[in-house]
Amino acid sequence: VEKDCKATVFDIKKAGAPTIEPRFETKFWVEAISSSTMKQWEEDSMPQLPNSELALKLPPINSYIPTKFELKPLPADDSSHPLLNCSVKVCIGNGKKKQWYPACVVKFKTEKNNHFLLLHFEDEHEQWYTLDSNIVDTDENAIEAGFESFFDNGKVKFKVTAVPREGEGFVFSYGDADHECDVDDGVAFPPIPPPSPASRLPQLVYNNNSLKVWHMQDRRFKRPQSDLRLNFVCDGMNDALKQACMDLFCKLCADALAETCYLASVCELGSSLHSNDTGFSIRVNGFDDKVMLLAKEVLDVVMSFRGRDGHTCLPSTIKDSRFDACLEVLRRNYSNSGMDASNFVTSLRLLCLKPSTKSSFSKLKALEGMTSDKFVDCLNQVLQKISVEAYYHGNVCREDADGAAQMISEALTVHHRGLPKKKMPSKLIIKAKDAIDHHLITSPTVDPTDSNTSVEVYFQIGKDDLTNRVLVDLLEHVLDEPFYNELRTKEQFGYEVSVGARWTFGVLGMSFKVTTSCKTADEASARVDRFLGEFRTQLESMSDESFMEHLVSLAKEKLEMFDSMADECGSHWSEICEGRYEFEVHRKEVQCLKTVTKESLLVAYDKWLHPVCGKGKPKKRRRVVFHVIGKGNIFRPDDPSEVGEHIDGLVRDFHNSVKGETWGKITF
């Protein structure tokens, strides 16, 4: 009987004769329920509001819900117009005759109620034209190929030959259908768009006390979104312990921000925190209305570790119970690294070439006996002096960038001590010996049950140079299909066969990779060298038409538009992080590519890759061969835990064999 309900007493003597169920002859009695009981039951079934002490409340409002979606206005001296970035032909007088000249609209500005367009011509000449009043407010949809009008109050006629797609920058077209067909067929070089004005490239807006902030307002994708990226360079990141502590630091911060980041992700705001050889990096992206709010939350947690000299406990932003959990996750990550032979052979190459990079095995060993006190003490040393470089990109104006710089500066706390440029860690690359005999580094796979063998043959070329970089890219483009066709398709030499250009801290190179389960490592590396010897004849006999097709195809790849705002931001950010600051590097590479001849490519091939000289004798090359062997005839420590130490020993032996010689500090 429910509480507060009246019970009904049943007396079988007074109930009378029972009713009998016909099939099982079960006896049961039926008695009417009183009206008062029915009324009470009906009242009890109605929903009851809780008393005033338990008042209902709505859930808290998610502070990351965006509320502003307007695009920020562009500067008056470089604003937007439907003709901007279009390719046009302009009818200009040349003596007594008038001729049509191709050009690109690169800039639009307004001064004293007059509107001007800057045109960039094929010969690099630029000239301003007054925009006639009848097309000042032309609808964007009205501008298409074939549109005609006038500049300078009807004095100069023009017609549009090409209109950029959404997300595309400058387009340059000769307006000649035959030429465009030749470009598509690979027999004519594509037109090179003009350089972007300085206002369309990242600008340094703040530079003080080891903090640099770059900014660029988006003009391509026109979305109410922004992307903030920060790179922190820390002092003394030169040993396995400090790099391991930095990995753990990033895991702890990410763990502490899990709830915050979840709320932000619901509103399409993303964030990430990653460690690297010299410190760590942060990225926050999404609707520009709330990006800085999330960035401040992330920075507050990250910077809570700074200015705590003398403290041995974790900051209040980190729960004590989470330290052991994050430490265990990191240890497992280290233990499981390198389990794939193909990925491991590439990691082994980087470990040998970059002495500043420490292996997962050495970092796992450095974490032995790690406690929160030791961790805090190590982090206090690492975060004592830092240098920060940031890039703010998207639907953000200069005032927004200034605000971001101020927020970052304040987040660094009053304890901030900058890391001088002279003490910034150098990104050094080991110089492979130039000799007939190559370096050979042979390692067992981390997983003893892995039956795959992976081989990477690396050719080191030298310091970064525009011409050499273009030649390396062109060699990759020429070699890629024949290399795959010979070793993978025809000979079934391995299931993964590839060739690629390499750019490692400013040092150029090329690598040839073969991953196989049916060939030995020696057979794979020997086959690569034999291919390079045989391909020289094909390269020399290549027709001019085929060579031109490779040039045009590579040029078109380099001139391809960015796929997204994140893609464009990532390209600029990589230039900032590497300190090269060549924001239109692909355009310069295409200009250089236009001057490359088959003879110059053949000279580069002979110098860098070909195994024999003109007299048919073995020649010197900077060649390093990496073998990662699975099941097979190779030394493997009996104790699996010693495999990592054995691999670290191989890296040390390589460094000792070249006497630690590097290419030195590379500047651009």
Indicate the radius of gyration in whole angstroms: 34 Å
Quote the distance from N terminus to C terminus.
87 Å
Beta content: 15-25%
Count of DSSP strands: 19
> Reading side by side through the largest sheet, how are the strands ordered?
6-5-4-3-8-7
Total of helices? 18
Into which percent range does the helicity of residues fall? 25-40%
Give a description of the structure.
With 668 residues, the chain is an alpha+beta fold. 35% of the residues lie in helices and 21% in strands. The protein has 18 helices and 19 strands. The protein has helices spanning 12-15, 35-45, 177-185, 240-256, 258-266, 288-303, 320-336, 341-353, 360-366, 372-382, 398-411, 466-490, 521-540, 544-558, 565-578, 585-593, 598-608, 643-657; strands at 19-20, 27-28, 87-94, 97-111, 114-121, 126-130, 148-151, 156-162, 203-208, 211-217, 225-234, 270-275, 279-287, 386-394, 439-444, 453-463, 496-504, 507-516, 623-629. The strands form four sheets. The protein has a six-stranded antiparallel beta sheet with strand order 6-5-4-3-8-7, with no helix packed on it. α12 (466-490) packs across α17 (598-608). The protein is globular and about 125 Å long. The model has no long low-confidence stretch (mean pLDDT 89).
